[in-house]
Amino acid sequence: MGSIVITPIYAAIFALMLVGLASYVIKMRYKHRVSLGDGGNKDMLKAIRAHGNFIEYVPMSLILMGMLELNGESTTVLHAFGGALLVGRVLHAPGLNFKGTSKLRQIGMVLTFGVLIGLAFRTIVLAF
CATH number, domain at 15? Predict the structure, then answer.
């Protein structure tokens, strides 16, 4: 087994993004005077969902990346997955702020799902 140096870089970047999303939720709660839930406010709901969506997908991606790295995956592959996930997450959150279905949001989710699926299959292949 190898050492783990690439995944922590992405984990740190995503941790900062998470703090940003959580801070935005707090800001919106203060602005709209909503202490719990969304208070029926669409902007509040969007902020909550951007944060929630991030929490739903990023941790598993980082876990799979870490497993691959510990099992000797190449730096190129790890950076490709990490970079694609980063782009996907950067596109997704602002995409929630547009009316209707945002192309940025769609691209962000396609990248996120692609990374998760790719990491999962690569992890299975390396397990054998």
Answer: 1.20.120.550
